[in-house]
Amino acid sequence: MINLPLLPLLIPLITGVILMLFPNRLRLQRSVSLVSTFLTIVATIYLVYSVRKDGILTVTLGSWPAPFGITLVSDMLSALLVLTTSLLVFFVIWYSMYYLSDLHQRFYYYIAVQFLLLGVNGAFTTGDIFNMFVFFEVFLISSYVLIVLGGKPAQLRESLKYLLINVISSALFVMTVAFLYGVIGSLSMADISQKITEINQPGILSVIAVLFLIVFGLKGAIFPLYFWLPGSYQVPPTPVLALFGALLTKVGVYGILRTYSLFFSHQQQFTHQLLGWLALATIVIGVIGALATRDVKQILIYNIIVAVGVILYGVSVMTRQSLEGAVFYLIHDMLIKAALFLLIGVMIGIAGSSRLKDMGGMIKDYPLLGWTYFIAALSLAGIPPLSGFIGKLLIVRGGFEAGDLVGPFVVLISSLLVLYSVMQIFIRGFWGTPKTYSGPKRHLTKQLLAPALALVAMTVLYGIGTEAVRPLISQAVDPLVDPTLYIQAVLRED
User: Is residue 202 part of a domain?
Assistant: First the structure.
């Protein structure tokens, strides 16, 4: 099926347009959105199967072949990330039906989520650097709607900061793409990868590499560009926070992974070393923030920053083993972060507050919630045999293979400190003296727990079934290690 890579983009696009026609039909919005996202999952599973069987799939829009036209490229990395994204959005929509009030859901919520899915899937699939910018803007515009959902003063205040940061980042993105086009004369990522090796201007290429690092680093929240994230992610409702925490920063990470493997793999002395040191600093800052706060949202928000650092350290090492670890851990973190945010959303809904001092003894009345959170926390920290352990093990081994001692040590120590930070929620929230709770969601725990439990089960299976998943991860890493595979698939003559 030659147009298969288009389906994960067309389905949410058509769904979003249809939902616009029925803004006040809430039951219809829920049903259509849920069914549509399920169809996206089915299409993406078939896409992963097709890429596994036939190799990299490409679609050229308007019959203009690359590098002149717009190309969508589904390699295994793209297909796996699109599948993970579609799964997360499905479970978040399911969770939102019970968590958000009808008023919030009527505020174009499902429309914004569908366009967010379109933008994220498009960013993962595009083979054109300018269209990556376009898809970034699609999901960012959707995120502007979602971050103010509810209209509280704190949301409006933080949304201005979020909007300003992303406007600056987007402007810099356009300028960087223009600079790259002026040097290379192409926007096709495969064509750029092919031609950039012929440019004997290492100084200019290093500047472009740093500019891309700033652009994607702002969106991915790496050190020192993370300052906007803790405040901005604190204010939206929990389902929106789950989407933001699991997806939006990961698109920035994907941008660095894709550009640094395709464009700048031939000159790693400066760019990748810089990326490595910033990644380690990101881990340290995230850990400090997670240990310093006593707010359940903030603990997990700072752990987003830690995970970004761990993944990018694996990218900076640029060995096959470290890249396999980075890709494995990227998918793991998308799943587990969404699950954890949904779980703490249930805790906040019961307690009516996100502060740990307002929680305690929940294990007595909500044992399934408590033990599900416990398993998810162990997976986040990387305790074997859960999925977080496999990704970190590969990254650490890749670091040692490259002759680095500092990076693997930082990653290993961060695992212990991450475990301590998330166990604070388990110990203080679920144990201790039981409290009387009057939160608005205390009677809906079964409905809210079901999608979160499904996500945790998926992360457990992802870790236990590593041997089954490993060939897919290996195939995803092939074009990162050998960009000629990507180039030949996109620029081949029909």
Answer: no
Reading the block at residue 318, the tokens are: 């640029």
Give how many domains the chain has, as a whole number. 1
What is the DSSP code string of 417-484?
HHHHHHHHHHHHHHSSS------TTTT-HHHHHHHHHHHHHHHHHHHHTHHHHHHHHHHHHHHHH-HH
Phi, psi at 493, each rounded to 5°:
-85, 130
Four-residue CA torsion sign, 380, 382, 384, 385: positive
In a domain, 322, yes or no: yes
Residue 299 CB-half CA count within 13 A: 26
Q: In 3-state terms, what secondary structure has residue 274?
A: helix
C-beta of residue 401 within 8 angstroms of C-beta of residue 319: yes
Instruction: State the alpha helices, DSSP H only, in 102-152.
Output: 102-106, 109-125, 129-147
**Range with lowest mean pLDDT among 195-204, 264-273, 374-383, 434-443:** 434-443
Is residue 366 included in any domain, yes or no? yes
CA torsion through residues 225, 230, 233, 236, sign: negative
In a domain, 14, yes or no: no
Q: Residues 117-128: pLDDT tens digits?
A: 999 999 999 989
Domain housing 456: 268-481
List, in sequence order, every residue forming a beta bridge with 60; answer none if it has no partner: 71
Q: How far is CA 100 from CA 105, 415, 440, 494, in A?
A: 6, 33, 11, 50
